[in-house]
Amino acid sequence: MLLTLALPRINEQMTTAVIRTIYAAEGAAMTLNSKFLDLAIDLSATVVHDCPPISYYRIGLRDKAWLRKLLVAPGDYVEPGTVLAHFSTEAGEALEGVPSRAMRISIAGILNQSDWLG
Q1: What is the pLDDT of residues 74-92, one digit of tens each?
Q2: Pairing mode, if any, of strands 101-102 and 2-6?
Q3: Where do the domains of the chain lie, and which CATH numbers do they carry?
Q4: Where in the chain does DSSP place strands (E)?
Q5: Which residues are 60's β-sheet partners?
Q6: What is the pLDDT at residue 117?
Q7: Nearest Cα residue to 4 out of 75, 92, 71
Q8: Which of 18, 20, 53, 79 qualifies as a cystine partner to 43, CB 3.0-4.6 A?
Q9: From CA 60, how far away is CA 79, in angstroms rounded?
Q10: For the segment 45-60, what is each residue's pLDDT rounded down to a tens digit?
Q11: Amino acid 43: pLDDT
Q12: CA geometry: angle at 38 spanning 25 and 81, to 5°?
């Protein structure tokens, strides 16, 4: 079965997200609860904040599948609804045809640790 993963609208004010890290490569077998990618959402242009307006999120997978085609890379700006990747439930499944359904995912807010001192 073919599955697709599109970027959900995580926040009502969200216009784009920046892909920060991708944890899988094409052809990889993804297990239940695999982390897939991290992204950042900057709301500074749309909402006045009294705290840093950038939020970080991780998308995890709630289905077992093979990552067949990755359509984004770190640094890409993507809008909600943009297809990020195609998956299949069988390793050698043909990629022709329409995906049967969306990949089930979980979204978690995370802390950006890149600026932390070690």
Answers
A1: 999 999 999 999 999 999 8
A2: parallel
A3: 2-110 (2.40.50.100)
A4: 2-6, 17-22, 29-30, 35-42, 54-61, 65-70, 77-78, 83-88, 101-102, 105-110
A5: 35, 106
A6: 56
A7: 71
A8: 53
A9: 18
A10: 776 666 668 899 999 9
A11: 83
A12: 90
Written as six digits, the tokens of 72 are 């984004």
Amino acid at residue number 18: V
Tokens describing residue 75: 């640094």
State the burial class of residue 22 (Cβ atoms within 10 Å of its Cβ: 0-12, 13-18, 19+): buried
Q: How high is the mean pLDDT of the chain?
A: 91
pLDDT given for residue 37 in this prediction: 97
> Can you tell me the distance from the alpha carbon of 73 to that of 103, in angstroms, rounded to the nearest whole number?
19
Instruction: Decide: 72 and 85 in contact? Cβ < 8 Å.
Output: yes
